[in-house]
Design brief:
The protein has 138 residues and is mainly α. The protein has one domain. It is 80% helix and 0% strand. The protein is built from five helices and no strands.
Length: 138
């Protein structure tokens, strides 16, 4: 679609929806267990590589913010999504907007995971305290 004839609300809706898979792919590769071994290899290369370009290349796969730029570029190429302008300027605006929204989603997800983990720890601590009190009473 032509970004000049598409309403700003439609572009915003597309941006918000396109950011979901960008955030999902970026988070999964940089944090989840399924990619742990390749990520550990990349982390090792970041620490031990002798050249700066090699270290920076491997750092890409360990940082969700950095990696999200590349994932966003791939999704923009697939979706041909542009914002505000036609041509390369529309892609540049869309790229940075998409990265920003995707990273907001990942921040929210990370905070939610921390809250859930904190609740689990509190529940475990209360359960252990209850078990200890029962053993003392018995």
């Amino acid at each position: 679609m032509d970004p000049l004839t598409t309403s700003l609300s439609r572009q915003t809706a597309e941006l918000l929806m396109l950011a979901v898979p960008v955030a999902c792919v970026s988070w999964t590769i940089t944090h989840e267990e399924v990619f742990r071994e390749p990520r550990e290899y990349c982390q090792q290369q970041v620490r031990q590589a002798r050249t700066l370009p090699r270290r920076k290349f491997f750092y890409l796969f360990t940082c969700e913010y950095c990696f999200s730029h590349y994932v966003a570029a791939i999704f923009l190429a697939i979706a041909h999504f542009q914002m505000l302008y036609r041509g390369w300027r529309g892609y540049v605006v869309a790229l940075f907007a998409l990265v920003w929204v995707a990273n907001q989603y990942m921040s929210i997800y990370n905070r939610l995971r921390l809250d859930i983990k904190h609740e689990h720890l509190e529940i475990t601590a209360k359960q252990e305290e209850t078990d200890a009190n029962r053993r003392k009473a018995a």
